[in-house]
Automatic annotation (TrEMBL):
InterPro entries: HotDog_dom_sf (IPR029069), MaoC-like_dom (IPR002539), MCH/BMMD (IPR052342). This is Dehydratase. Residues 8-111 form the MaoC-like domain. It comes from the Archaea.
Length: 143
């Protein structure tokens, strides 16, 4: 889809993806974030969550990948422009399955290209919102 193809209020839903222990360990290795809340079951048991949680940035990365699988901007993408209002509202645990609702919230015409503001709502299998954000993506115009 190109800039002109998006309209305010347009919604998309991604497939789901289950978060695994391997995801958490691999992300810790790549990012260097070995915080005990993510990788130490005994430590995590004594926290308010009672068990290990996924990194917030891992959740963000998974959601980004799920959105990419929608292939909405595959032919028009210029660049990922940024993230606004990112919040992690509930923990994501090993075994949780997350998906995202993507809504076109804003369109900003920049002349020879445009920026689409997508409201992102990530939801787990219990229909709880685990993350919200606005993703901004620079896309080409058709003309």
């Amino acid at each position: 889809m190109f800039f002109e193809d998006f309209s305010l209020g347009m919604k998309f839903e991604t497939a789901g993806r289950t978060v695994t222990e391997a995801d958490i360990v691999n992300f810790a290795g790549i990012s260097g974030d070995w915080n005990s809340i993510h990788v130490d079951e005994e430590f995590a048991r004594r926290t308010r969550f009672g068990k290990r949680i996924a990194h917030g940035l891992l959740t963000l990365a998974i959601v980004s990948g799920l959105i990419t699988r929608l292939r909405m901007t595959e032919d028009s993408l210029i660049a990922f422009y940024g993230i606004d209002r990112l919040r992690f509202t509930k923990p994501v645990f090993i075994g949780d399955t997350i998906r995202a609702i993507v809504e076109v919230e804003e369109k900003d015409d920049k002349g020879d290209y445009g920026v689409i503001g997508f409201k992102i709502t990530a939801i787990n299998q219990r229909e709880e919102i685990v993350m919200v954000a606005k993703f901004k993506t620079a896309v080409r115009k058709r003309i």
